[in-house]
Design a protein that fits this description.
Shape: globular
Strand order of the largest sheet: 22-21-20-19-23-24-25
Number of helices: 19
Number of strands: 25
CATH superfamily of the largest domain: Aconitase, domain 3
CATH topology of the largest domain: Aconitase, domain 3
Distance between the termini: 30 Å
Strand content: 15-25%
Helix content: 25-40%
CATH architecture of the largest domain: 2-Layer Sandwich
CATH class of the largest domain: Alpha Beta
């Protein structure tokens, strides 16, 4: 078996599992963050569910550790009250990013399992632990039952050969891999990463690379733990564990060999993490702000890199540099080593530990027309504000903050360039509507044809609305950040069906990206493929999501009426009588749909 197969087998009490099998997996560590935590509590309370194991269950307040937003503050307080009643530990606003805390506090260990409302829970692959991001209903089920159903994914093996160039950082490694594989080549698979240079990666570097498995569309990226990683986890957990490695004759769906010696320092262009170019193509591009942090690049090694570059220098006039350590432990270590003083002397804003720019509740957001260079893992349109976001390594970020334009540490100018004006964009409002969906096994509705691939969750339901907990309020924001479809909520009618492209719902684990369509009364969504977390969220909330191979022969036109037979996996175009099969729906999906959601299932 591969790593993920071995971990799932161990945690489902089976000798062996195979790709495609659906099994119940016991979860060792269960996290809920501040934005998803209140919804988890709501699901538990409204369904009369109790906590399966308090000592394995935690709240982590990392999205808005400043408590600066009223709705976040309210949600945090709901979680605190629930935690007191149920004797659950809270890693409050002074702690940092939950997935990092799981590693540094020894909550998670190699060979274990973890779920979180954080779509980057697969960061745990850095220590050989299975981590999975899930929606609030999924997490509520895990908290109540101690286990969740999971479909065993295929595994792909990537081996890096050659010597790592000296100017290639961990962020460059993952950006090069993103450029090669894109967002759907490895969609829904587990990745195992091997090679001489891989084995030499530090924990912080492993975290950077594993964190961005989500941006590749993968379930998780495993880097098998070496002796240093095992020793770190032993020291921080204080408990014995058995690391899991791939068996000698493990079967991989595909195997790739990639030459790391050919890797170049790269930058992701705004809007798409996988759309990367060599840094030389962008040198001289003016930047208004720089963000250094996130679960991808907020570790002590990252901060040491930027401190070395910033030491004795000032950031360019008119440029804002925001630095956010991943955890309070990293913050304290930066203070002890004198890094904080270097940052402040350079003119940077240093915030308390947390997610920052990736979550709308803390520093790192930008305004209309603003260009930001970020070390984060995502730069989806609107993810970090109204401006444009480039992704790069901490070294390039620090050099850029000093120059005022994109550059590298070896080409920092003596004086930054003068700044030019940036145009301001408008903000548009949307109306609201709501209707509860029904549970027939045959659905009839008019279609919206949205022939786009990689529609991410920020396009579907922007992160600035994540504090909303009432489904009835979510509909008006559906597709509110998808160009050309901003007024979808005004046009949609109850019973409508959406047909779209590949990798629909890529990105975060937010349940709202499903519930906004339920609020509008949308009957179903058909796509060539779905983001793994999105598909789970939809299935678990009882919302039909179906996969097709090719619908061209149906001759569908916008607003044609179609019939979808869920039990027989068939679609019919009523305007011409043509029909095509869809990918069969798993029995578990039908059961959850007919029950009205996973939390309504008995047993």
């Amino acid at each position: 078996m591969t790593i993920i197969e071995s971990i799932i087998a161990r945690h489902s009490y089976r000798d062996k599992v195979f790709p495609g099998e659906i099994v119940d997996v016991e979860i060792d560590v269960r996290l809920a963050r501040d934005f998803g935590g209140a919804n988890v509590v709501k699901n538990l309370v409204e369904n009369g569910l109790s906590i399966n194991k308090q000592t394995s269950t935690f709240f982590t307040f990392d999205c808005n550790p400043t408590g600066s937003d009223q709705k976040y503050a309210a949600n945090q307080q709901i979680c605190r009250q629930f935690a007191r009643e149920n004797m659950i530990k809270v890693f409050d606003i002074d702690a940092g990013i939950g997935t990092h805390l799981a590693i540094d506090k020894g909550l998670a260990v190699p060979g274990g399992t973890l779920v979180s409302t954080d779509s980057h829970a697969n960061i745990l692959g850095a220590i050989g632990c299975f981590g999975q991001g899930m929606g609030d209903q999924d997490i509520a089920a895990a908290w109540a039952k101690g286990a969740v159903w999971f479909k065993v994914p295929e595994t792909v093996k990537i081996t890096l050969v050659g010597d790592r160039p000296k100017d290639i950082y961990a962020k460059d490694i993952i950006l090069n891999l993103l450029q090669k594989f894109g967002t759907d080549t490895l969609l829904g698979v587990a990745i195992e990463l091997y090679g001489k240079e891989v084995d030499n990666l530090s924990l912080d570097e492993r975290i950077t690379i594993s964190s961005m498995a989500t941006e590749m569309g993968a379930i998780i990226l495993f880097i098998p733990p070496n002796d240093d990683i095992i020793r770190y986890c032993l020291n921080h957990s204080g408990k014995e564990f058995t690391p899991v490695f791939a068996e000698e004759n493990a079967h991989y769906a595909k195997e790739y060999v990639v030459d790391i010696s050919e890797f170049l320092p790269r930058i992701s262009l705004p809007g798409k993490p996988h759309n990367t170019v060599p840094v030389n193509q962008l040198k001289g591009t003016e930047i208004d702000s720089v963000f250094i942090g996130s679960c991808t690049n907020g570790r002590i090694e990252d901060l040491r890199i930027i401190a070395k570059i910033l030491n004795g220098r000032k950031i360019a006039s008119g440029v804002v540099l925001k630095i956010v350590p991943a955890t309070d432990g990293v913050w304290q270590q930066s203070l002890d080593e004198g890094l904080i003083r270097i940052f402040k002397n350079a003119g940077a804003l240093v915030s308390n530990a947390g997610c920052a720019g990736c979550a709308s509740g803390q520093v790192g957001q930008n305004g209309p027309g603003e260009k930001t260079l970020s070390t984060g893992n995502r730069n989806f349109t609107g993810k970090q504000g109204k401006g444009e976001v480039f992704l790069a390594s901490p070294a390039i970020a620090a050099a850029t903050a000093i120059a005022g334009y994109i550059t590298t540490p070896d080409e920092i100018p003596d004086r930054p360039a003068k700044r030019s004006a940036v145009a301001i964009k408008n903000v548009f409002g949307r109306s609201d509507s709501f209707q509860k969906d029904q549970k027939p096994d045959v659905l009839t509705g008019k279609v919206w044809l949205i022939p786009e691939d990689n529609i991410d969750t920020d396009m579907i339901f922007h992160n600035r609305h994540l504090a909303i907990t009432e489904v009835s309020e979510m509909g008006r924001f559906a597709f509110g950040n998808l160009e050309g479809w901003e007024n979808f909520a005004d046009m949609a009618q109850p019973g409508d069906i959406i047909i779209t492209g590949r990798n629909f719902g890529s990105g975060s684990s937010r349940q709202q990206a499903v519930d906004c369509f339920k609020a509008l009364g949308i009957h179903a969504i058909l796509a060539r493929s779905f983001g793994a977390i999105y598909e789970r969220n939809a299935i678990n909330s009882g919302f039909p999501v179906l996969v097709y191979d090719d619908l061209e022969s149906l001759d569908l036109q916008l607003r044609d009426e179609v019939v979808i037979d869920l039990k027989n996996s068939m679609i019919i175009n009523k305007s011409n009588g043509k029909q095509l099969p869809l990918k069969p729906i798993p029995e578990v999906q039908l059961q959850i749909y007919m029950a009205g959601g996973i939390l309504n299932l008995k047993g």
